[in-house]
Design goal:
264 residues, alpha+beta, Jelly Rolls, six-stranded antiparallel beta sheet, five-stranded antiparallel beta sheet, 11 strands, 21% helix, globular, binds 2,5-dihydroxybenzoic acid, binds fe (ii) ion
Amino acid sequence: MATRRFSAGGDPDLSDLYKDLAVNDLQPLWELSGLLTPAPRTRAVPYRWRGKELRELGERAGDLVPVGRGGDRRVLSLSNPGLGGTPYATATLWGAMQYLGPKETAPAHRHTPAALRFVLEGEGVWTLVDGDPLQMAADDLVLTPSWTWHEHHIPGDTPMTWFDALDLPLVEALEAVFFEPGQEPLAPNTTAGRSTSERRFGSGPGLLPDGASSTTPLAHSPLLRYCWADTDRALSAQFADLHGEAAGTGHAHLRFADPRTAVT
Ligand code: GTQ
Ligand code: FE2
């Protein structure tokens, strides 16, 4: 039974109606306010989490909290102070810093929320997406689309921290969250060279494997790593083009897009 009470303003008949509505799990729209707002209400507030603290606290978690089954990921979520204690950065986005130590593995799993990762500094992490080994180095963007298997490895001796963004709160609101743990981690010796995804779809502007759009009916970009060297080159080229679209703006601006369709 609904527990919300509505004021009948002293009218006994109305009061009876409201009681009976409640007993029948009904609510009178005319007593409800704030549902159809003229414009969206934004509860999340502008906020800054300082990189220095994130790094230090990640390292401390690294010393104290093992990663593995049961713990799966060593992640500090950004909890927006406007969102009443939820572990979410905004109403629709999860944002977090993930810390992985030397020789550690964050085991395979998959979930319906999609993830993207921005590497802020360092290198040495390999993220396997559906078994394809993607290198993660400073300023790279790495995609883990919805329901793809993923696991993170550091075969070497240097720990690393990176930023995760997931559409978890959005998918949760749609009641569409599914999660599945995977098999034991693959050996990190599968991590050499460029990923299959990059070799096929990261060749350069306008260059796609023949038949790509029909043979890869993916709901997400087949390019899973946007490496900084490519992004930097493209930004520099755009910036240097003083007569082009960037003219007068003083800055170059790029969009990460699905190379098959050039749609985000
Ligand atoms: O790296 O797989 O920040 O599953 C939150 C959930 C990272 C991940 C997060 C995750 C991951
Ligand atoms: Fe994940």
